[in-house]
Amino acid sequence: MITHFLTNILLKNAAAELNFGSKFQSMSRTLLLLLILSAAGQISAQTMNCRIVSARNGSPIPNVAISALQSDAVWITDSMGIAHIDAADPGPFRISHIAHMMRILRPDSASSSWVVALQPLPYSLDGVEVISPVARFRRDSALNHSFFRRELADAHFRPGVKLVPIRTWRGLELGLEWQGVFTNLALIASGKKARYKRFSRELKRMEAGKFTAIRYTTSLVGEQTGLEEDAAMAFIAAHPIGEEFLRAASELELKMLIRDMYRPKR
After folding, report:
1. Sheet holding 82-86, edge to edge
2. Which of 61, 92, 93, 149 registers the highest number of CB atoms within 10 A of its CB?
3. Alpha helices in the chain (DSSP H)
4. What three-state secondary structure class fits 73?
């Protein structure tokens, strides 16, 4: 009897310890899962998922470059067309791909995901729609300036003076009225004016570089000088041409300038 009683006690204690160990392991697994979910939540809160798709069929586009215009950070989309962007970066972002039209956008800061549709370049055999690089540049530039017209206007905003009639004891007289003084002070105090000025300079620099690359090409230099690709690139780097001349000059004037610059080196 005593042996049977002791055996029952030992079995009950063993079962209790086993039950406690099982509960402890279950609690440990639950706590670990909560920690993983919390860490994942913190990571997702620090990044924003940007998915780039084709506007033609909605398929994801890999190897799309997403460049922050203020911080100079760059992200590349994966095979699913997704890039994880730093949520603290205010943008705007330049989205570019070799086979699609470039876009400059600012995401919705309240959302953790962002879907952007890119239009394929308008070179197709079906309708034979061909737009020259210069025409495409002017169209994209007009779209960018239209989209960011408020920021660009605030970047160059200046208070003005206006003549207005003022009623005095002598009658109506002309006086000076300052306009936009408080608006300009608010822009400066908030730091927006400085940010918009930096953005305006970056947009101008980007467009100048893109337009120069469209008109002043290695193929054009090669046609006028006989230089190969690498030598033509070195020639362009050593002989920069101002943006104002490139915008105003005809094709013949540009070719003559290239020949004149190359002639002393021969």
Report:
1. 82-86, 47-54, 113-118
2. 93
3. 2-46, 133-147, 149-155, 181-190, 192-215, 218-225, 229-238, 243-248, 251-262
4. coil
Q: How many Å apart are CA 163 and CA 175, to the nearest integer?
A: 6
Contacts of 207 (CB under 8 A, 6+ apart): 137, 141, 144
C-alpha closest to that of 135 among 147, 122, 145, 119 = 122
Neighbours of 126 (CB within 10 A): 5
CB 107 within 8 A of CB 93: yes
The Cα–Cα gap between 36 and 200 comes to 43
The boundaries of every CATH 2.60.40.1120 domain in the chain are 46-131
The dotted CATH code for 46-131 is: 2.60.40.1120
pTM higher than the cut 0.85: no
Angle between helices 229-238 and 218-225 (to 10 degrees): 100
DSSP string, 146-184: HHTHHHHHHHT---EEEEEEEEETTEEEEEEEEESHHHH
CB 35 within 8 A of CB 160: no
pLDDT tens profile 52-74: 999 988 899 999 989 888 887 88
Name the CA dihedral angle for 239, 95, 202, 143, rounded to a multiple of 10 degrees.
100
At 218-251, the pLDDT tens digits run 999 999 998 998 899 999 999 999 888 988 889 8
